[in-house]
## 1
Amino acid sequence: MLLPGAVNFFADIGIVYAFWHSNVAGKLVIAALLFGSIFSWTVMVTKLVMVRRARRETARFLRRFRTARKPLAIYQTREAYPGSPAYSVYLAGCRELTFHLLGTTEIDDTFSTRLAEADRISPVAMNSVRSALEREVGEQALQLEDRMTVLATAVSGAPFLGLLGTVWGVMDTFSAIAAEHSASLQTMAPGVSGALITTVTGLLVAIPAMFGYNFLVVTLRGMTVGLDNFAAELASSFDHRYLDTGSPLPR
């Protein structure tokens, strides 16, 4: 239990003092900003966890893929790398390729035999495989960038919302002074202090969101480029092993 002296001490601290002297609109703005801060921090933490997992699983998958002798080896053994965008791209390409090679995407005990006896596919069919890879790269990029608009909104909107609360509070302070027909520092200080806290709160929300947003944008852009590069690498591997180069190219 706090002693009366301690209560007075905390009440005199700038930000606490300003909060208790802010008007109703200012308190509502602060509540909205705190809610937005919790939401933006939740997005940042979950995205960072997702990025860390995606990098770890992608590194595991790429090591396995580049040591496998056959492009479809991982697909055939049904190995799983959950959370890896590159693995999702790989699965999409393998499904499309096996459909054109075997007429089905089913994996059973005869998969190796049927794959060894299958004819190579035409350039038209391989173009369909490339299209499937490109579609999956786009879908994975959208998933990586999911909820990034929340951080962008916090960065751009929080300072303006805080400024709105400040302007509103200053307006109310001057209105009260005009109504009382007296102006002094003691009269103005509480109202101005209560008005300025909304701007401070807005900046406290926007600044961490800005750093988190910039870091995530650069990180996710690099991961998207890596997905494009992997899709090109996988397409080349499919071309080398399964493309019928004797078939006429489409016009």
## 2
Amino acid sequence: MLDRRRFLQTCSAAAASSIAAWAARSPVKLAHREGNMLRKSSPYVYELAASIPGLSGVEVQTTRSNLWDKETVLAYKKEANRWGMRTASMGGSFEDGGTITKPGPAEVSLRKTIRAGEILGASVVLVPGFRETCPKMDDESSYGPVVELLKKMGPVAEDAGITLGLELSLDVAEYQKLIGLVAHPAVRPYWDTTGTDHMGHPGEGIKGLQVFGKTICQMHLKNGRKLMEEQHLMEMHPRHPDAGRAQSIDWTKALPIIKASGFEGWFAFETPHASPEACVEDTKKNIAFVMKYLS
């Protein structure tokens, strides 16, 4: 028979074990990219997102949606709160013609986007760079200024509770080199498995899931013009005309890798739809497929 002290010790150990198990669980957080939900930006995007069971957030389009403007960003915040939806991340960080390879204007844009993201409660500011707007990692004159920019902006983002997510047309080794040179915890990969393959690095999309795992801050989920469950030969990427055609990702293999990796960030669907109504129906199907492997 247990005495009082042994009983309390047993209860305490059981409680600690239960708390540890609870803390180890991470919910699957699914968002959708505003630019793929509505043809014209609007705070209505949160109401549309709320109509899709299983969706809990939105990746907004910063400059397209005029979110550097205080009245506009507050209108988005009001609708997000009204519909109980999170602003997961800030896409479209740069003005037209802006690029990470132009550090001066890029810094100004990133500071404005971080400020808007802080108001909206976003976790990530997406920092894009594709093809001609991506630093060349074999040329220090190209990547050096980008490294210095990110070293400068990492602490700014961190102070706002935000991570700068790099979505670039690099292969895995090049990503590792850039992230290593910046060496700041608030500068991390924003991984697009399909985009990486489609931008000219076949096989690197899934490799990146394995290499970066839980250090990835957020992921895009997409499958060309098809539902997530369909494997097919994808069209040529319009931003990388010499990449050729590529087989789509086998998500039945990729999603278990993600689950096993310990990734805890948001997933954002970046899937095209013919209309808001089609967005609802397509996304329901995509969520059901994804959750078969992540839940």
## 3
Amino acid sequence: MARDPDRLRFGGDCEGFLCLPQNESPAGAVVILHERYGLAKHTLDLAQRLARDGHVALAPNLFSRWKGDEAALRSGKARVVLPDPEVAAVIDAALDFLKGHPRVAPERIALMGVCQSGRYPIVVGSRRRDLAACVVFYGASQPRDWQVTELQPTPMPDMMRSLQAPALFVYGERDHTISLEDVRRVRDALESGRRSYRMKVFPGMPHGWLNDTMPGRYRAKEAKEAWVVLIRFLADVFSGTWPGEDQVRWEFESATSADYDFSKNMRLE
């Protein structure tokens, strides 16, 4: 069991929701980042699930400092792309808040991004040395995430090679935004930088299949399996069974059709 999320402010002008597990002993924590639709129900549901599994979960509003049409954002009619440093500042404030929270074991904090927010565990994890793990669900791999722009000033390969914490990447074979070639590009960057990772490609899965608020995308069986992958990974890194800095671990698992063709992948709602 877990309590209902508590709305809070941190870092001066940032807002979010905090979910605490039933056990009051200091626990591992996860900063869970929302998708492109803002801090919507799906992200809060994930935060509560993490708390039910024994973790403190903080879901920050990455657009806390953005003043725009929130209704259009939540409906998907608007897309907000902010400078990496601006989003990272909100995440830094969330991480620092958790490090000082009495219910959190400060050496056991993970950062998890989903879809559009998947790039930010890499952005933040490339320069912070106090994360226990980075987690990315079908993000940080789209071609646009690898473009160097004014908003994204640091090349993605450079950031991946600078990660210190082990990283989990979860993908779907039928994702219309991430091809298997994109997945291999991520894997190659991590391995060339000798960074530790666990990576799994789920066969037949579309983009966003974890999101049960989108019936066209949601896949209950595989979503349950993916959650097990996440919880086991967190258990490994939080318990100290994952290798330390003196050893690099690469774990890659993929199942795809023999006639895979990315051009046939379709956007589902």
